[in-house]
Specification:
This protein is α/β, with parallel strands linked by helices. It has eight helices and six strands, in the order αααααβαβββαβαβ. It is globular. The relative contact order is 0.15.
Length: 201
Amino acid sequence: MNLAQVLRTAPDAPSAFQSARQRSAELYADILAVAPGGDGRVDIEAVQSRPSILRRTAALLSEALPPGTDRLVCAASDGIAVTTALALHTGLPFATVTGAGDDARLTGEAHAGEHAVVVVPLVGTAQDAAPGALSVVRAVLDAGMRVSHVLGVLDSSSGSGDRSVADVLREQYEVRFHALFPAPSTFSTFPTTDQKEVDPR
């Protein structure tokens, strides 16, 4: 295959020249670069205001979308930027959930019976942050839609000593949770992009 054929068949230019692992590592490094002060926290608003980060995040999240997804759903206003990027990348429509807890309501176009995926940019411990994700899932289910997955960008619940968000979602709603990366406070080492890979040929 020549270069023109490779570029024509690749979903985007980076995927033609970098492995998925390299692209993930590069994106994670860029996300960490916007972290304030080195205290292990990430300014998720800064992350979501960078178009290059949003484009690559959407590309990686799209690979985790289950087949048959009809609609994306996010909490307003926390997840609108990353969900919009994912919607533009995939062509899927999305709706938002306003309010929290028992006051959470689905807004925008949504239809009973649709297969929805909830998108959250940052998830904390199950005790602290799961209620937000759970209220979005509950609002979607109350609207008569089906939810199979919650997709996140950063997850700080693993290694926290608390029950993970994945456990809570699975136990209460039989919904799977997938995050692209651990949040920096739970992260030890992520492969760098300059590692040499074995040529598959």
